[in-house]
């Protein structure tokens, strides 16, 4: 199934940006994922097309209006179609709408046989709606895996001082942070979340990713990597990696992953240790083995 991303932004020209290049760019051209950008300003109702207003209670900056955001979100949800080119052309505000339908034809939502059973008439398509905000829950690789295995995502990018708080509950929006830093807008954060999802989509990384352990699987950081030359500026690649003894190498890597995590990320380490031996960790391992 094709993964559909809809970005709600005041700067649609920022997309696909870096995601039009390399792996993600090729996957976009191949129709593995699709991108629609919705210009939030197109949903302003006053003659100045304003999307923001001064903060209630006073203070610096401007706040994005809940009514304008809600209209944009409702539009994006109504238009959302995984596995098809979706018709946001009229509301795109000149933003990119890069994906053409995989199968030709005029009729509404197109369904590719590879996408599994088509949604039945009247069946609501549930797509996660994320808002990028430093006040959100920090995104994790586990959440990225969930998102990547779904139909796609709608991402709301903030600007100025952020969103009117009421929008989150009113539209069941998940507030997501990409870390304890403050960006000038949600667009780079949305690009990060999308990039992380796209590389997990089947066919994007080829066979290389499946079964390979990565940082954050099982709440561990990856072991250190090396490549030739074996001796560089007086620094050697660890002996064990040149031994050809696969069991020894695997044991060394496990130890290094554990050591690095314990020293650099006590928060992850605590979770890793906490999950070990409990039924949940077995389930996670099984999930990982299946590449989901
Ligand atoms: N005044 C706000 C910051 C607004 S930054 C505060 O102190 O919380 C402007 C916009 O950038 C936000 O609305 C959000 O969309 C985006 N942004 C900034 N930092 C972010 C982060 N760490 N994660 C996700 N989005 C972020």
Beginning-to-end CA distance, first to last residue:
14 Å
CATH structural architecture of the largest domain:
3-Layer(aba) Sandwich
Using the coordinates above, name the CATH class of the largest domain. Answer: Alpha Beta
Beta-strand content: 5-15%
Total domain count: 2
Q: Ligands in the structure?
A: S-adenosyl-L-homocysteine
Radius of gyration: 22 Å
Spans of at least 5 consecutive residues whose pLDDT stays below 50 are 85-115, 279-292
| Count of helical stretches | 8
CATH topology of the largest domain: Alpha/beta knot
Which structural class do you get from the secondary structure elements? alpha/beta
Mean pLDDT across the residues is 85
The main β sheet shows up as: 5 strands, parallel
Helix content: 25-40%
User: Care to count the β-strands?
Assistant: 9
Oligomer status = single chain
String of helices and strands: EHEEEHEHEHEHEEHHH
């Amino acid at each position: 199934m094709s993964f559909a991303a809809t970005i709600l932004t005041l700067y649609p020209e920022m997309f696909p940006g870096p995601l039009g290049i390399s792996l993600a760019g090729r996957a976009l051209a191949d129709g593995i994922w699709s991108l629609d950008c919705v210009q939030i300003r197109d949903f302003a109702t006053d003659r100045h097309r304003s999307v923001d207003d001064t903060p209630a209670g006073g203070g610096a900056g401007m706040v994005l209006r809940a009514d304008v955001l809600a209209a944009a979100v409702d539009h994006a949800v109504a238009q959302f179609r995984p596995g098809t080119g979706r018709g946001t052309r009229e509301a795109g505000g000149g933003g990119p709408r890069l994906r053409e339908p995989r199968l030709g034809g005029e009729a509404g939502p197109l369904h590719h046989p590879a996408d599994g059973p088509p949604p039945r008439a009247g069946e609501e398509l549930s797509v996660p709606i994320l808002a990028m905000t430093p006040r959100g829950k920090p995104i994790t690789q586990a959440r990225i895996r969930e998102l990547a295995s779904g139909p796609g995502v709608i991402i709301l990018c903030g600007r100025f001082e952020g969103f009117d708080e009421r929008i989150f509950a009113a539209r069941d929006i998940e507030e997501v942070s990409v870390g304890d830093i403050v960006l000038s807008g949600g667009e780079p954060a949305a690009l990060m979340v999308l990039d992380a999802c796209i590389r997990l989509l089947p066919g994007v990384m080829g066979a290389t990713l499946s079964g390979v352990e990565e940082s954050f699987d099982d709440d561990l950081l990856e072991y250190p990597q090396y490549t030739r030359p074996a001796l560089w500026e007086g620094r050697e690649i660890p002996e064990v990696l040149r031994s050809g003894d696969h069991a020894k190498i695997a044991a060394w890597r496990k130890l290094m992953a554990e050591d690095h995590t314990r020293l650099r990320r006590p928060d992850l380490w605590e979770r890793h240790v906490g999950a070990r031996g409990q039924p949940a960790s077995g389930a996670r391992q099984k999930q990982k083995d299946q590449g989901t």
